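Hi Y.,

Following your request, here is the sequence exactly as I used it, all 375 residues.
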Amino acid sequence: MIASKSVISDGKGNISVETVQVGPPGAGEVLVKIVAAGLCHTDWDSIQNWNKAFIVGHEGAGIVEAVGEGVTGINKGDKVILNWAIPCGECFQCREGNLHICEVNSPVCGCGLDGHAHIESSKRADKPIERSFHLGTLSEYTVVKKEAVVVINSDIPYSSASIVGCGVMTGWGSAVNAAKVDAGSSACIIGCGGVGLNCIQGAKHSGAAIIIAIDINDERLEQAKQFGATHGIIAEKDDVDFANVAEKVREICGGRSADYAFECTAIPALGSAPLALVRSAGTAVQVSGIEQRIDFNCELFEWDKIYINPLYGMCNPERDFTKLLRLYDTGALKLDELVTKTYSLEDIATGLDDLINGRVAKGVVMMPGYDKASN
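Below is the corresponding structure, written out as tokens. Let me know if you'd prefer a different format.
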């Protein structure tokens, strides 16, 4: 067993840094030494609401320490990114090509521990403990199923690689895979945090001619322009129905509303906002995963508007992670610039506070012995 410092939550709002024991991988499993772990709003939500003990974290990159029986194509020493939407490859959704909503393994499908490596591989006080989203990346070591591992061949720093497996993929994939933004089109992005900035990058990659960033913060709008936004609009807090924003969007787009609009705030009150910004037959995308009940004004759907709620940017990890890293390697995708600040495990409370108060685009926890520049 390996002693591994880990961030533990009780799922009731409390966290602690403790040492857990991590064992060898079983058949079809991989032991990964985590180098960097991204911080995501979902981590905060899980800490507050899961009501059980678990190792926190679902964004991460690291080095393969060992592989279990039957694992091929993954070797000790490989540099890897972890993927939380683990496909089984055989269920109805996987056969349909929807690997991100696997009916057997995806944690968002209520699948329990089916996608989990054997739970006894991590023990706290001699008792097995779950890993968040089958990963638990806020830990020096973790054991995962081989399908959760994507081997990469890039000089990208681990800090930048660690954020690919959720925030980057969700934003970029929502524009590229889900909405399929057309070249020459117009797109609005509501909320310019980590996910929103990657949605902007996805729209730019797809060739959108007008990319309108919308936020309540001037500094975020300026940052959004560095990632590909062509225009910025400040949203006023008393503009509840986004009427003023919608008017400004029409002005920018030549009198007609935008072709696409993406909600990236996770604020329930803004769940219908993208519908107010798209033209008839336009596409509104709820990117952030709002799960609360929202009352819609059906007039917002007039006429022929499409509203979609994709998960994880419709991620196919082998295809999309490879594509994202290729874009990064050629300078066409900004990832280093997204990592606003790095933290140690002991600074996790500060990192989470910076996250929920919007002080960082993306925060990353670096494990002991590594720093942001580690390749």
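The mean pLDDT is 94.

Thanks again,
Q.
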